[in-house]
Design goal:
A nine-stranded mixed beta sheet has the order 2-3-12-9-14-7-6-4-5. The protein has 341 residues and is an alpha+beta fold. β2, α1 and β3 form a beta-alpha-beta unit. α2 runs antiparallel to α3 and α3 packs antiparallel against α4. It folds into two domains: 256 residues, Jelly Rolls (Sandwich); 69 residues, no CATH class. The protein starts with 5 loop residues before the first strand and ends with a helix. The protein is 26% helix and 23% strand.
Length: 341
């Protein structure tokens, strides 16, 4: 891993049962040391991998989950093949008890294949787990997921929701980049991704780092803005919306519990859909027309305020009025009608 000079700022003494409002509307990342240290799963994870596996099996349902499996030569990386014509891992179905038994059997195998169960909804596959292993979000109802595996490396990617990720077994190194490092991270395809999100094509632990500098010369600039931390059982990291994050599991058995939530109403669409529509309808216009639409987007979207439609009577502002659930439905219907012509 290339040397990263700056550590993620740390906060101590956060009440896990009642997270403060400032943490639920984050604009910068923090490491929250010991936030989940009192959880039974974190105590088990501190004791041993065997204890953590036994604890998880108390809740695990016999319902298949998706398991990503990569050969030993992938060295844990869940990403594309070298030619990018396919992925360097396969996906299988297995129950969590079977996966946990497999990980237990491979604990002492240095040449083990990578086994990775990502983004599995806790309430569905581990019912009852959150009764004793949970954070207090108040009125917010986040999506709680669990991530289980051995030594995996998840390429840098973004998520639209805010995120608190709690390590409860093993150790993980998290590397973060501000959203403005997009052009320096060499992001892959938007529509053919390893796990739903576009990822950086840079291999952070490539042994031939000079070669990667030739392929990805601006990555050195991204590293100047990077933040990093190593987390153990009970530690958490707060990742604000759209911050790039690379996750590396460092032990033969690792478990992470994370929470996603958005600061917008559920009826608001994801901005990614707007990006895809703009790629289809704006990106390939002649340069002069693209500049016109840049100004239109600036006026109606990025710099919109109370003055944007102040000259129009309030009763007839339509979509220029504040969007609520009813207007969102109307707008969605309008878009679908236009797209289905």
């Amino acid at each position: 891993m290339p040397q990263i000079a700056e550590a993620i700022e740390e906060l101590q003494g956060i009440d896990a049962a009642a997270l403060p409002e400032a943490l639920l509307r984050p604009t910068r990342p923090y490491v929250l040391r010991g936030l989940a240290a009192h959880w039974p799963i974190a105590r088990a994870g501190t004791t041993s991998a065997q204890e953590a596996i036994a604890y998880l099996k108390r809740f695990a349902r016999d319902t298949p989950v998706t398991v990503s499996v990569a050969p030993p030569q992938a060295e844990g990386r869940i990403s594309y093949r070298e030619d990018m014509l396919g992925f360097g891992f396969t996906q299988e179905k297995a129950t969590l008890p079977v996966v946990l038994d497999g990980l237990l059997q491979q604990l002492n195998d240095p040449a083990a294949s990578t086994i990775y169960v990502g983004s599995t909804t806790i309430d569905t596959w581990l019912p009852g787990f959150r009764e004793h292993n949970d954070l207090g979000f108040g009125a917010i109802q986040p999506l709680a997921s669990i991530w289980i595996g051995n030594r995996s490396r998840i390429p840098a990617h973004q998520d639209v929701p805010d995120n608190i990720a709690c390590v409860v077994a093993g150790r993980r190194r998290v590397t973060l980049f501000p959203p403005d490092q997009l052009q320096n991270l060499y992001i892959g395809p938007l529509d053919r991704t390893p796990a739903g999100q576009a990822v950086s094509l840079v291999d952070f632990t490539a042994p031939d780092y000079r070669h990667d500098r030739e392929r990805f010369p601006r990555f050195a600039e991204a590293l100047r803005h990077a933040l990093s931390a190593e987390l153990g059982p009970g530690d958490a990291v707060l990742i604000p919306s759209m911050w790039w994050h690379h996750m590396q599991a460092l032990e033969p058995f690792n478990v992470l519990v994370n929470y996603w939530w958005r600061q917008s109403p559920k009826w608001m669409d994801t901005p990614m859909n707007a990006l895809l529509l703009a790629i289809m309808s704006v990106r390939d216009l002649p340069p002069e027309q693209r500049e016109i639409w840049r100004e239109v987007f600036r006026h109606y979207v990025f710099d919109a305020d109370a003055q944007t439609a102040a000259h129009i009577p309030e009763a007839v502002r339509g979509l220029l009025a504040p969007i609520d659930e009813l207007r969102a439905r109307e707008l969605r219907a309008r878009l679908l009608h236009g797209l289905n012509r």
